[in-house]
Design brief:
The chain is of the alpha/beta class. The chain is about 30% helix and about 20% strand. It has two domains: about 1-20 and about 70-110 and about 155-235, Rossmann fold, CATH 3.40.50; about 20-65 and about 110-150, SIR2/SIRT2 'Small Domain' (2-Layer Sandwich). The structure holds nicotinamide-adenine-dinucleotide.
Length: about 240
């Protein structure tokens, strides 16, 4: 019998740092040169959709080149070799979990390679440019595409599913997230209250460490593969 049956892995910008993607709060962070009020709010998109599209089209060019690092690949190994239901709940908009061939991925903040039609809800997937002239291939209406990124002021995606995963998991891993962006910062609390063992992987203690049973400090590209190898070994 495996030690755990339902594992939830929450990831944040820190898991992608070793793939060369700046974290949110670092000095050269992805949003550093653009205040979030200009590119990541509902109002900004209503005010100047062309500007917001340009910003995400440029970001796509950076993110399409990024490659998964050993932390993403360790999750693939866990999903292949450990007999449990293993879900990845990510705050990241990059697609490194997909590139590493992780499965059961929930992008609660959306993903950079998607745009959603505000007329019919159709989602297109592309690393190419999307703009105010783009025609929805489903309803044929022009100019209604929005980057499928959850802006401040919008609801997160997949929350019902994620809530039920958190309530039933017996192991909760939080990797490379500062724990200051809600509601993801409260996920550990839900998992812990419902009986999960909770572990945080980060470079340093975060402000949200009260509900973690264990902290593993260091770069996720080193600490996570070692932890996962041990988990798999102990199950054999
Ligand atoms: P954050 O920038 O607030 O925090 C990153 C955390 O990762 C920090 O606590 C830092 O100490 C830790 N960290 C940095 N390098 C690490 C490493 N090598 N190993 C382990 N930990 C490491 O990011 P957040 O908590 O995810 O919240 C910021 C928001 O910004 C998220 O909503 C996310 O959508 C967005 N964002 C996404 C990306 C991306 O898609 N790659 C990049 C930047 C920001």
């Amino acid at each position: 019998m495996p030690e755990y049956k339902n594992i939830v892995i929450l990831t944040g910008a820190g898991i992608s740092a070793e793939s060369g993607l700046a974290t949110f709060r670092s000095s050269n962070g992805l949003w550093n040169n653009h205040p979030v009020e200009d590119v990541a709010t509902v109002e900004a998109f209503q005010r100047n959709p062309a500007y917001v599209h340009d910003f995400y089209n440029e970001l796509k060019k950076e993110l399409v080149k990024a490659q998964p690092n050993p932390a993403h690949l360790a999750i693939t190994k866990l999903q292949k070799e450990y007999p449990a239901k293993i879900s990845v709940v990510t705050q990241n908009v990059d697609t490194l979990h997909e590139k590493a061939q992780n499965s059961n991925i929930y992008h609660i903040h959306g993903q950079i390679n998607q745009a959603v039609c505000q007329n019919c809800g159709h989602i297109i997937e592309t690393f190419g440019d999307v703009d105010t002239q783009t025609v929805c291939p489903n309803c044929q209406v022009m100019g209604m595409m929005k980057p499928n990124i959850v802006f401040f002021g919008e609801n997160l995606l997949y929350m019902d599913k994620v809530d039920s995963l958190l309530r039933t998991c017996d192991l909760f891993l939080s990797i490379g997230t500062s724990g200051v962006v809600f509601p993801a910062a409260a996920f550990v609390q839900i998992a812990k209250i419902n009986g999960a063992h909770t572990i945080e992987f980060n470079l340093e203690p975060t402000s949200n460490n009260y509900y973690f049973d264990q902290h593993i400090f260091g770069k996720a590209g080193t600490t996570l593969p070692a932890f996962i190898d041990e988990l798999i070994k102990n199950n054999k």
